[in-house]
Amino acid sequence: MSFLQDDRKNIPELAIKNGWLTDVEIQKSSHCEPRVENETVNLLVVHNISLPPGKFGANHITDFFLGNLDPNIDPYFEGIYSIRVSAHCLIQRDGNIVQYVSFNDKAWHAGVSTYKGREKCNDFSIGIELEGTDDISYTKAQYQQLSRLSQSLIRVYPELESNIVGHCDIAPGRKTDPGEAFDWQYYRALLVGEN
């Protein structure tokens, strides 16, 4: 994906207070647990999700993360509605951010995972979901908001800056997201202000 050089706007960082973004939609999920005391948050994991797969715009992702997904809506939901998962945040196709879990707590986003020899990435990571699929281009609004959110998180958790990965990187062979459609070069350029 390629955007014009002036795509990066000087958008202010998102404010974080007590682990919560202050100016976004909040939908508190119970699919989380407290972090171990003094745990250093030093990993940012980028994911994708769409429910049903390849369909965008409905409220099904939020329902899933809150444990309210109706298995009768779509045959695909019958196999997943009882799974207890969550991410810290979702960035929808239009750039809207929804937060489900405090950054101070563990969201259940990574599953069986390893980063730099350390297992259980949920313990020390923040998980951000993009509404999307591995093979459909993400929107400019999503990249801009992901960059904005990442910058704000790095301000609070400085070690994240050098530890940003895809779900595929911590669960290779099991997960493929954010997929080949995710433009890491463009995201990193936005993150450091090059675009």
In short:
By secondary structure, the protein is an alpha/beta fold. The chain has four helices and twelve strands, in the order E-E-E-E-E-H-E-E-E-E-E-E-H-E-H-H.
Question: Can you characterise this structure?
Answer:
By secondary structure, the protein is of the alpha/beta class. It has one domain (13-192): Lysozyme-like (3-Layer(aba) Sandwich). Helices cover 19% and strands 20% of the residues. The protein has helices at residues 60-66, 140-156, 167-170, 184-192; strands at 16-17, 20-21, 25-26, 32-34, 43-49, 89-91, 97-99, 105-107, 114-115, 118-119, 125-131, 164-166. The strands form four sheets. It has a six-stranded mixed sheet. Strands 1-2 form a two-stranded antiparallel sheet. Helix 2 (140-156) packs across helix 4. The longest helix is centred in the C-terminal third of the chain and has 17 residues, at 140-156. It is globular. The protein starts with 15 loop residues before the first strand and ends with a helix.
What are the key terms here?
single chain, 195 residues, alpha/beta, Lysozyme-like, two-stranded antiparallel sheet, 4 helices, disordered N terminus
Secondary structure elements and pairings:
Layout (H helix, E strand, L loop, with lengths): L15 E2 L2 E2 L3 E2 L5 E3 L8 E7 L10 H7 L22 E3 L5 E3 L5 E3 L6 E2 L2 E2 L5 E7 L8 H17 L7 E3 H4 L13 H9 L3
Parallel strand pairs: 3-7, 5-11, 5-12, 6-11
Antiparallel strand pairs: 1-2, 4-8, 6-7, 9-10
Helix pairs in contact: 2-4
